[in-house]
């Protein structure tokens, strides 16, 4: 069976090929409940870290440690997908630490910016969902191909910039120039558009994929939502500094 491609690695064919079979199937309700649970976990940890920072606790390694843990968990999850019911909640915890550090620093320097970023992220999510459900945007093969290509290119730029940072070379994407802001806007737009691919894939696999893959679908949505939120925070910080 051939499945459609998506820019989100959590939705690749590898994770959806079911060799053992399953009686219970993936449902949208199951994905929704698991996603809400993981978002609650992330939010709780973010608030806790936020309070620690406000009380003077050093949270320097929270963001980087959380990101590293999320990467390791994702790698394990890619080869042990039947552990998803354990690994995805752990991924949410790791992302909670990452976003907690990021959000605490953003709040300290730009009061109320995280609240605004959360609001923009939620609005963007539901707008994209509305556009998908009403078919105002149709996810054709050409649209998928464009989104996949652009998102892959964005991640390549981020990886190269990250590697260069070890040699003391600061990439243009981290500054507040118009070029950096333009790249950030571009990345945020395609982070939002990647939700279209996730919605499309879930719709095609609902009531077909085995039940445990609801956790895999939840993981995929978390990857996209967190990416979108981070892009929005970075963009709003740049605007705040520049203006």
Number of strands: 0
Write down the secondary-structure element order: HHHHHHHH
Can you give the helix content as a percent range?
over 70%
Mean pLDDT: 87
- Pick out the low-confidence regions: 18-22
What class would the helix/strand composition place it in? mainly alpha
How big is the Rg?
18 Å
The portion of residues forming beta strands comes to under 5%
Q: Which of globular, elongated, flat, extended, rod-shaped describes the shape?
A: globular
Distance between the ends: 52 Å
The major beta sheet can be summarized as: none
Helical stretch tally: 8
Can you give keywords for this protein?
single chain, 243 residues
If you had to describe this structure to a student in words, what would you say it looks like?
This protein is an all-alpha fold and 243 residues long. The chain contains eight helices and no strands. It has helices at residues 13-16, 28-54, 62-79, 84-109, 113-133, 141-165, 178-205, 213-242. Helix 4 (84-109) runs parallel beside helix 8 (213-242). The longest helix is centred in the last third of the chain and has 30 residues, at 213-242. It is globular. It starts with 12 loop residues before the first helix and ends with a helix. Mean pLDDT is 87; it is low at 18-22.
């Amino acid at each position: 069976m051939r499945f459609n491609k998506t820019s989100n690695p959590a939705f690749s064919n590898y994770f959806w090929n079911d060799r053992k079979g399953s009686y219970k199937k993936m449902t949208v309700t199951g994905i929704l409940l698991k996603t809400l649970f993981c978002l609650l976990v992330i939010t709780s940890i973010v608030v806790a870290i936020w309070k620690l920072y406000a009380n003077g606790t050093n949270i320097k390694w929270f963001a980087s440690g959380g990101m590293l843990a999320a990467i390791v968990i994702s790698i394990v999850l890619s080869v042990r997908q039947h552990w998803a019911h354990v690994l995805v909640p752990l991924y949410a915890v790791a992302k909670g630490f990452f976003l907690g550090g990021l959000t605490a620093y953003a709040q300290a320097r730009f009061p109320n910016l995280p609240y605004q970023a959360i609001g923009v992220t939620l609005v963007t999510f539901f707008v994209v969902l509305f556009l998908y459900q009403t078919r105002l945007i149709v996810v054709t093969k050409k649209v998928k191909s464009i989104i996949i290509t652009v998102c892959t290119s964005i991640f390549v730029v981020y990886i190269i910039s990250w590697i260069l940072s070890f040699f003391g070379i600061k990439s243009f994407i981290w500054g507040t120039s118009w070029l950096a802001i333009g790249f950030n806007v571009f990345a945020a737009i395609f982070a939002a558009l990647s939700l279209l691919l996730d919605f499309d894939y879930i719709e095609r696999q609902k009531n077909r994929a085995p039940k445990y893959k609801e956790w895999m679908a939840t993981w995929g949505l978390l990857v996209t939502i967190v990416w979108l939120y981070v892009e929005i925070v970075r963009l709003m910080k740049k605007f705040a500094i520049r203006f």
